[in-house]
Amino acid sequence: MLSRLVHTDFDYTLAWLRAVAAAVMFAHGAQKVLGWFGGNGYDATMSGFTSMGIPAPLAIVAILTEFFGPLALFAGLLSRVAAVGLVIEMIVAVALVHLPFGLFMNWTGMQPGEGFEFHILCIAMLAPIVVRGAGALSLDRLVERWLLAHRPATGELRDAHAH
User: Fold this and answer.
1) DSSP H helical segments within the chain, as ranges?
2) How far is CA 18 from CA 12, 76, 80, 107, 112, in A?
3) Hey, where are the domains in the chain?
4) Contacts of 121 (CB under 8 A, 6+ apart)
5) pLDDT tens digits, residue range 66-106?
6) Please, what is the Cα angle at 29 between 75 and 124, to 5 degrees?
7) What is the distance, to the nearest Å, from the Cα of residue 143 to the centroid of all Cα atoms in its chain?
């Protein structure tokens, strides 16, 4: 099961998508957790999420997903899991916050909030990683190689289950 989860081809396009998505998403996660890049930090983000009616445990999961998910993506470690988590987070953000403001971001400052074009682009970048894996230069490839090198032979596996 784990070998299927980490399987990926030596594909530089996937590595590029992974790195760019990780960089963009990490900045947003760092805003929420550390207060970097003009963000509010963890306490204010938690307060904002819970005031929107998001239960505290789910708010914690969302905040940590947006912070640690990009780190896992950048390293290419369990990239499919990280990408799925971030895709879910983007879908929830659109549904709970951005959908009423339409597609476009608030470039002119004339609308009351931000649209969801950013979220759609993030989902589009993450979807190939969910489907195809982390690509080249990833820890997933190393984990897969290690698993393949250390898997028991078919006879050994059968004997182990017999005892």
Assistant:
1) 2-6, 12-34, 41-51, 56-75, 79-93, 117-132, 139-149, 154-162
2) 10, 8, 10, 26, 32
3) 2-162
4) none
5) 999 999 999 999 999 999 999 999 999 999 999 999 999 88
6) 70
7) 19
Whole-prediction pTM: 0.88
Residue 72 makes CB contacts below 8 A (sequence gap 6+) with 78, 79, 81, 82
Query: Cβ of 38: how many Cβ atoms within 10 Å?
Result: 7
**Tell me, what DSSP letter sits at residue 151?**
P
Nearest in space to 61 (alpha carbons), one of 34, 98, 86, 24: 86
CA 17 to chain centroid: 12
- State the Cα–Cα distance between residues 85 and 44, nearest whole angstrom: 22
How far apart (Å, rounded) are the C-alpha atoms in residues 30 and 38?
10
Q: Which amino acid is at 32?
A: K
Is the CB of residue 118 less than 8 Å from the CB of residue 105?
Answer: yes
